[in-house]
Amino acid sequence: MNMAEPSNEAASSSSVSEQAASVAPMRDELEKVEDFLEPDKKRRKQVRGDGKTEQKLEHRLGGILCCAVCLDLPRAAVYQCTNGHLMCAGCFTHVLADARLRDELATCPNCRIEISKTSASRNLAVEKAVSELPAECQYCAKEFPRNSLERHEETMCEERISSCKYSRIGCPWRGPNHEGPEHEAHCVHPHRTGADVMEALRDIDARTLEERRLYDNVFDLLSYEKITFNGLYMSFVDVFTHFSPFYYLF
Prior knowledge:
Number of strands: 9
Strand content: 5-15%
Radius of gyration: 38 Å
Number of helices: 7
Low-confidence stretches: 36-48
Order of helices and strands: HHEEHEHEEHEEHHEE
Helix content: 40-55%
């Protein structure tokens, strides 16, 4: 009873052989298709085989269009040497000033070619491309184009840090902009006495005067457009006079 009949064994063996015969051509076709497929590293897709996502286009462009000195994206003008290496306006000015202080020729930090105000040129294409790249708001963490991010952070973001409208009479509150109306409705500084207000005004005047002195010093330093060095050499010459056997020439 447990032994299989010969007819059933023959049928099962024939079905297995047919399945094997049908699988073999499919395997050959798959091997041919895999020969023409690109490797995973060459495929342009968002998710690789190991599950890690590739960087976005704006992040890759940020690494290409960044300044060669500070490695940050320029915020204003973009200058380039004759070989095309990019520098932001601040770093470009710093390189020129540093070379002038050392009494040396200013050179590009990448290729060491000589640069100056006349040889370097602005790259308007890079400036426009950088201005359209997205950047994250420091208050609400939302992304906006760089050309509108500053306006959003200063006037439109509800999470931006703002002061109380009674700060001129001594209120020290600072917080999110959307919490300002609630604080101002319960602020106690409008009900303070004149003596308390005058004390706060004196403190504000003292801070303002200190800031003004600082800015005056900065403006004085920036007003020196050209920094030059004058060498002073001294030598003595013998003179047969009754006053002195020698004197110095300056």
